Amino acid sequence: MFASSPLFASKIKAAPIEDFDLPNLAAAAIDEFRSGFASDLLGYMGNGAALLDIEKGCDIIAQGDAADYCFEVVEGCARSVQRLEDGRRQVSDFLLPGDVFGLDAVGEHDFAGEAVTAVTIRRLRLSTVELLAEDDAAFAQRLRRHLTRQTKAMRSRIVLLGRMTAAERIGAFLLEMTERLQGSSHGIVELPMSRGDMADYLGLTIETVSRCLSDLKSRGVISVKGARIAIHNRRALTAETLH
């Protein structure tokens, strides 16, 4: 899912990856990846990046597009999606302000980028990123840290999809979103993505997502009102108490 780009092969070396525990560590690993690199990366490059406004539901990039650009979300929420030959899709990531995507593409983009909400995107040529990495040691170091954290987040996602129960996946997702979404406070999160998006991100069906949320609600762990979810018992979303 996250292939290392030859653009940065001379600057970036792989780092050892630790094993991850279940929902709380999965959410923490993904959040560590976000916080380490996202701060206005492409804005660092000055006037070379273009700002684009994309309407809800529209493509930012299509699966199979030439890997000429990378992107940073400035406002709104996007998703990274791969559509399979049988028509199913896998949402690999939800992209929020500060998140960068497309750096890992080699030749073509394996995943489409789609606007979950109306989004503002900063777009920059990968060739420009390559030149900056060659000329700016500090920037090259930021790239190395980013790809290292990205790999750790990928490993955490493998654990999430391969070893967690459905309830544990929902718990990890809610913990992740309360950390990542701007404006979340006091355990209240307004989810911009649909239940279908959640299902395709977590490797579940929509019915399973709805059933798990209803179960957590009936146990008093969360309350749900449309897209707004309030977490009343954070500990109850961790692996020790979910069954």
CATH topology of the largest domain: Jelly Rolls
Uncertain stretches of 5 or more adjacent residues: 1-23, 25-30, 32-39
Strand content: 15-25%
Would you identify the CATH architecture of the largest domain? Sandwich
**Helicity level:** 25-40%
**From the structure provided, what is the oligomeric state, counting identical versus distinct chains?**
single chain
Number of helices: 6
Please, how many domains?
2
Mean pLDDT reading: 79
Could you tell me how far the N terminus lies from the C terminus, measured between alpha carbons in angstroms?
Answer: 29 Å
Order of helices and strands: HEEEEEEEEHHHEHHEE
Using only C-alpha atoms, the radius of gyration works out to 18 Å
Main sheet attributes: strand count, strand direction, barrel closure: 4 strands, antiparallel
From the spread of the alpha carbons, the general shape counts as globular
What is the topology, as strand order, of the major beta sheet? 1-8-3-6
The CATH homologous superfamily name of the largest domain equals Jelly Rolls
CATH class designation of the largest domain? Mainly Beta
Query: How many E strands?
Result: 11
Secondary-structure content class: alpha+beta
Walk me through the structure.
The chain is an alpha+beta fold. The chain folds into two domains: about 15-165, Jelly Rolls (Sandwich), CATH 2.60.120; about 165-235, Orthogonal Bundle (Arc Repressor Mutant, subunit A), CATH 1.10.10. The protein has helices spanning about 25-35, 125-135, 135-165, 165-180, 195-200, 205-220, and strands at about 50-55, 60, 70-75, 80-85, 90-95, 100, 110-115, 120-125, 190, 220-225, 230. Strands 1-8-3-6 form a four-stranded antiparallel sheet. A four-stranded antiparallel sheet has the order 2-7-4-5. Helix 1 (about 25-35) packs antiparallel against helix 3 (about 135-165), helix 1 packs parallel to helix 4 (about 165-180) and helix 5 packs across helix 6 (about 205-220). It is globular, with a radius of gyration of 18 Å. The protein starts with about 20 loop residues before the first helix and ends in a 12-residue tail after the last strand. About 40% of the residues are buried.
